[in-house]
Amino acid sequence: MSKIKHTLPIAAAAIVLTAGSIAGPRMILAEPTAGEASSAAEAKPAVADSASRTKAGVRAAATSPEQLLKLLGERIVAKDVDGIIALHEPEAAIVDWDGSIVRGRAAIRAFYIEWFKSNPVLTVNPRQTVIAGGWRSWDTKVRERTAAIMGDYSLEQDAADGTRESFTGNFCDTVQEQLDGTWLYVQDNPYPPHGDPATSRTAHH
What we know:
By secondary structure, the chain is α/β, with parallel strands linked by helices. It has helices spanning 34-39, 65-77, 81-85, 105-115; strands at 16-17, 27-30, 88-95, 101-103, 121-132, 135-136, 142-143, 146-158, 164-177, 183-188. Strands 1, 2, 3, 4, 5, 8, 9 and 10 form an eight-stranded mixed beta sheet that branches. A two-stranded antiparallel sheet has the order 6-7. The protein is globular.
């Protein structure tokens, strides 16, 4: 199949996580040295998203890239659109199947609402997470780092004719650490270029 409509951004669609955890030996933490630093989220949720809320009823925040992936997976299962949007930066973006960019929380909200109509089941295999960048504060801690989450996936969803269709592909997503130590999505990209440019989109499906 040469294309897919309304495909969920892969890191966000962590309904099923395999390959253990992205917080295993595949995580690479690349922090700058002190010298380098000195120089340089309208569908209503069908299920209560209790798994990603604290006991006080406040939504949980991600304190690592792997927790961000986990929270998005839980909120997708619950069809908690508000919760999904809360895990994205205001100007976050999604790369769609045709190369177009879904940009900003309002557009991402509409994207998810439409996508949920296809009853998706997605299996994500996060293969590597690389944390880098940021700046070193007075306490020597590096803050506002960026992480790339990379891996592969398989997806099953309803087709336009009512049958179920399946796809596989790779993803490379970008998440950003905030000043308070939490993490938010900057970009969900289930269609990174690879191989022959002429076939890079069809290779996913």
